[in-house]
Amino acid sequence: MTIENISSTKAFGGWHKQYHHQSTALNCTMRFAIYLPPQAEQQNVPVLYWLSGLTCTDENFMQKAGAQRIAAELGIAIVAPDTSPRGEGVADDKDGAYDFGLGAGFYLNATKPPFDQHYKMYDYVVSELPAIIEAHFPVTKQRSISGHSMGGHGALTIALKNPNQFNSVSAFSPICNPMDCPWGIKAFRGYLGDDQQQWQQYDSCELMQNSQQFVPALVDIGTNDNFLDEQLKPQTLVNIAKNKGYPLELRMQPGYDHSYYFIATFIEAHLRFHAKHLQIS
């Protein structure tokens, strides 16, 4: 698999880099970002995969969250893919809506035409991207995953479906029960059709209810998040975790909203949470 470096910037003794490559899973050219901490010059380091939310690219988290300083201290690489396939011929919402189509891949494998031709973000994040990262960069096979909003949904569902692949999972403001909120219903119907059995495989509540192996999970949500009641609906997930005995810590943070100011405030706690489960002292 050939990758092309398109930017390289030093930060906190390490390097933030962007790459282009031709994706087999998505059938288009994709861009991803990677932060390599200074320890990567001497040894292989574990990886945190970050999944961003609606309308974002690989750049939002890397530029706004302030994660590199702590990643450099802990010796964790961070990989941030784009949020959907891109390019000529990739299907988009016919009205150009922000919550479906380009920038809104929902980290699933679409089965409904025309989106089934490119929208295979689940396969990309679970299989193709880790294979590229582990082939081209000084990293171990120790992985954790995190994300925000739509990406929080992606991180939780991917970890729940692949407990042997990820040591830990965290999320900021995740869409906890997409089968029961407008964002999720629109995306699932558009990408998967009307069969709700297909929807269940990408809903954190359904997956946690049926989980047999546990991945330690940390979730932060702001009490002033304007999407809290209509889109995020964390209480269902909390209730399932409690009944299941699932190791989920969900923290409601007073006064915080849905923004990157919120993420920047608590990203250090999330990185230290993952470092503990990645067995970094």
From TrEMBL:
UniProt key word Hydrolase: yes
Q: Which SUPFAM superfamilies match?
A: alpha/beta-Hydrolases (SSF53474)
* UniProt keywords, alphabetically: Hydrolase, Serine esterase
What GO molecular function annotation could you give as one example from this UniProt entry?
Answer: hydrolase activity
The superkingdom listed in its UniProt entry is Bacteria
List its EC numbers.
Answer: 3.1.2.12
Supply the Pfam families for this chain.
Answer: Esterase
Reactions mediated catalytically? S-formylglutathione + H2O = formate + glutathione + H(+)
- Gene3D superfamilies from the entry? alpha/beta hydrolase
> Which InterPro entries does the entry link to?
AB_hydrolase_fold, Esterase-like, S-formylglutathione_hydrol
Q: Which family does it belong to?
A: Belongs to the esterase D family.
Role: Serine hydrolase involved in the detoxification of formaldehyde.
PANTHER family under this entry?
Answer: S-FORMYLGLUTATHIONE HYDROLASE (PTHR10061), S-FORMYLGLUTATHIONE HYDROLASE YEIG (PTHR10061:SF1)
What is the name of this protein? S-formylglutathione hydrolase
Organism taxonomic ancestry: Bacteria, Pseudomonadati, Pseudomonadota, Gammaproteobacteria, Alteromonadales
Point out the gene that encodes the protein. Answer: frmB
